[in-house]
Specification:
Residues 549-603 form the Signal recognition particle SRP72 subunit RNA-binding domain. Residues 624-646 have a biased composition (Polar residues). Component of the signal recognition particle (SRP) complex, a ribonucleoprotein complex that mediates the cotranslational targeting of secretory and membrane proteins to the endoplasmic reticulum (ER). It is found in: Cytoplasm; Endoplasmic reticulum. By secondary structure, the chain is mostly helical. Helices cover 65% and strands 1% of the residues. The chain has 34 helices and two strands. A two-stranded antiparallel ribbon has the order 1-2. Strand 1 and strand 2 (304-306) form a beta hairpin. The longest helix has 23 residues, at 638-660. It is extended, with a radius of gyration of 48 Å. The termini are far apart.
Length: 661
């Protein structure tokens, strides 16, 4: 048996391990080069050699976040919390913010409010949650700190919070010009749009685009990247053109942005939505196809969500506009099932918004269920009276269109901001008159008069309301109340219309009062030469008696005669080619009558062959023979002649056929 080979001797010296200092040097190099995946691997090597190293843990978490590995970063934070006492609450909150778990992110930030980084993150979370006021408050607390581009986020927060009027004052306090960067110029232009200064906004947006092109070209960005960065400015310029009435230019700009299909998906989504809003119901199928690419169904708690992460990139107002336009297009295309499904999901997606309720009512109206729409809107108005103005206006419109004037009038009467304005009062009165509620309409006028009498406003509408109320009362037979209102108007405002109305109403019951006020009327010019007494004695078209007005009537008749003489006769128009000197024979006087009614009409002769008798050969021969014998001695007439002719022709034919045999 052969001896076993000897085992190789083990190496006496082990492979030298890489020092932690060298690993950190390598880690720093990868981070400087933005090689985050390699940085994570080196961090794991450091943690294997030195578990619990705080710098390595932080580097690993930050590298995972930079590499967009948010879930792995949360796992690393969770493992670190088990093994070490390192506080990574800020990083956890940021990862939850990136995952749009905003409430959990705010909870994780508790206890971190003092640091600048935590305050910035909290303001961003609040901004994403739609709590713009709280977000702006945090930014204003950070004004004294040296943070790059703080003014950009601050202006954006002010615009989103509905405080666009404070933007210019904020820039002045920060001593920053709106054109210091293209981002700040863009946000400032948005504030001008909110203040309806569209011309100024358009000029500032054009400046922002020019500054952005210069800045990004200096950074050596490619043309495509520059176009992507400036896409929001292009969309906003097109929107301003739309508002200013330049519809064709706006449609061309939006269409160009959609066709280019830029990598800035949020700007493309806004352009698609605005383009659909511009076109309206003209091309419903194309609009639905475009929106189908933006909206998709999900298996989560929310049945619908925007594609490609647009829920995180668009504001709540923008997302709501996209869903609203989709519902309207579905209604226009009569896809009621899809519209009902989407509308049912909107209240959970946009809690506190009025639009889902209005869309629910629109669906019911489309289905000819106006009463159901009125019920939904009325319940919401009763539940949230502080934000029921738009809801009540919609309910009034639906009820008026459905033929329910009383419900429409009651809805308008519940809006305290406008219920006493002249237009609203006139509308409510008209609706109540249509419903047959005259007393209710009269009460509306009385309430409006009391309100305007006590109102301390410079632009008082009391005169207008009282004038219309008096006319209404007079029209419905309430002459005493009308006279009282007219008298108040005459005494307070000296209105001529009120004076005329007062005389009309007082003439029926108090003639002395009517005559007293009649003296206040100014004489009409041109009536001094007319004797009213003699004018009353005239009857019909007879000449008036001689008096001061006789000369006036004579001159009037003379003028009318002169006018009659001045009329010149026009030459008659003849047909083309007609010579009036040689007119030719006169036209037929019966030319307008139908032909069968003219004296020259002769009916067409009947076909003689219509009475031919056809049948078998032998039968025809016998019948013709017998008929010729019996009728040979009868006198000829048209009917007999036609019969004989028919029989002769038949007999000759039969004889020929027999001879052929």
């Amino acid at each position: 048996m052969a001896p076993k080979p000897k085992e190789k001797a083990k190496a006496s010296a082990a492979t030298p391990a890489i020092s932690i200092e060298d690993l950190f040097t390598t880690l720093n190099r990868h981070i400087q080069r933005s090689e985050y995946e390699q940085a994570v691997k080196v961090s794991d090597q450091i943690l294997a050699a030195a578990p619990g190293d705080e710098d390595a843990i932080r580097c690993k978490v930050v590298a995972l976040v930079k590499a967009d590995c948010i879930e792995e970063a949360l796992v690393a934070i969770k493992e670190c919390n088990k093994k070490a006492s390192l506080d990574l609450s800020f990083f956890k909150a940021y990862c939850l913010y990136r995952q749009n778990k905003l409430e959990e992110a705010l909870e994780s930030l508790k206890g971190q409010e003092g640091s600048t980084e935590s305050m910035l993150l909290e303001s961003q979370i609040l901004y994403r949650l739609g709590k713009m006021g709280a977000s702006v408050d945090i930014y204003q607390k950070l004004q004294k700190s040296t943070i790059d581009s703080l003014e950009i986020n601050l202006v954006a927060g002010l615009v989103s919070a509905g405080r666009a009027s404070e933007v210019q004052g904020t820039l002045d306090s920060l001593r920053v010009k709106a054109t210091s960067s293209f981002e700040l110029a863009y946000n400032t232009a948005c504030s001008l749009i909110e203040r309806e200064k569209y011309k100024d906004a358009e000029q500032l947006l054009l400046s922002a685009r020019r500054i952005g092109q210069e800045t990004l070209m200096e950074e050596n960005l490619a043309d495509d990247d520059v176009e992507i960065e400036l896409a929001p400015i292009a969309v906003q310029i097109a929107y301003v053109q739309q508002i200013l009435g330049n519809t064709q230019e706006a449609v061309a700009s939006f269409t160009d942005l959609v066709k280019r299909n830029l990598a800035d998906e949020s700007s493309v989504a806004v352009a698609v939505n605005n383009l659909i809003a511009l076109k309206g119901p003209k091309d419903v199928s194309d609009g639905l196809r475009k929106l189908d690419k933006l909206i998709e169904k999900s298996d989560g708690p929310e049945k619908f969500q925007l594609a490609r992460g647009l829920d995180l990139k668009l504001s709540q107002k923008q997302r709501e506009a996209i869903y609203t336009n989709r519902v309207l297009l579905l209604l226009h295309s009569n896809k009621m099932d899809q519209a009902r499904e989407l509308v049912a999901a909107l209240p959970g997606m946009f809690p506190g918004s009025l639009m889902p309720v209005l869309l629910q009512a629109a669906v019911h109206v489309r289905e000819n269920k106006a009463a159901k729409a009125e019920e939904i809107l009325g319940q919401y108005a009763d539940k949230f009276p502080d934000r029921s103005k738009v809801i009540l206006l919609a309910r009034a419109q639906v009820a008026a269109a459905a033929g329910h004037p009383q419900i429409a009038a009651d809805s308008l009467a519940k809006i305290p901001d406008i219920q006493h304005k002249p237009a609203t009062v006139a509308t409510i009165v008209s609706l109540k008159e249509r419903a047959g509620d005259t007393d209710g309409a009269d009460a509306v006028f009385d309430s409006a008069i009391r309100w305007w009498s006590n109102a301390m406003t410079e632009d008082s509408k009391l005169n207008t309301i009282m004038q219309e109320a008096a006319a209404f009362k007079l029209r419905h037979g309430r002459k005493e109340e009308a006279a009282r209102l007219y008298e108040q108007l005459v005494k307070s405002h000296g209105s001529i219309e009120a004076l005329v109305g007062l005389i009309q109403t007082a003439a029926d019951g108090d003639i002395d009062k009517a005559e007293a006020y009649e003296k206040q009327l100014k004489p009409l010019p041109g009536l001094k030469a007319i004797d009213v007494d003699s004018l009353e004695k005239t009857s019909g078209a007879k000449h008036a008696e001689k008096g001061p007005n006789a000369g006036a009537t004579e001159t009037y008749e003379a003028k009318s005669k002169d006018k009659a003489k001045k009329k010149r006769k026009r030459k008659p128009k003849y047909p083309k080619g007609f010579d009036p000197a040689n007119p030719g024979p006169p036209p037929d006087p019966e030319r307008w009558l139908p032909k069968r009614e003219r004296s020259s009409y002769r009916p067409k002769r009947k076909d003689k062959r219509a009475a031919q008798i056809r049948g078998s050969q032998g039968a025809v021969a016998k019948e013709t023979a017998s008929s010729s014998d019996t009728k040979s001695n009868q006198p000829a007439n048209p009917k007999g002649a036609s019969q004989n002719a028919g029989t002769v022709k038949a007999s000759s034919k039969s004889s020929r056929k027999k001879s052929r045999k």
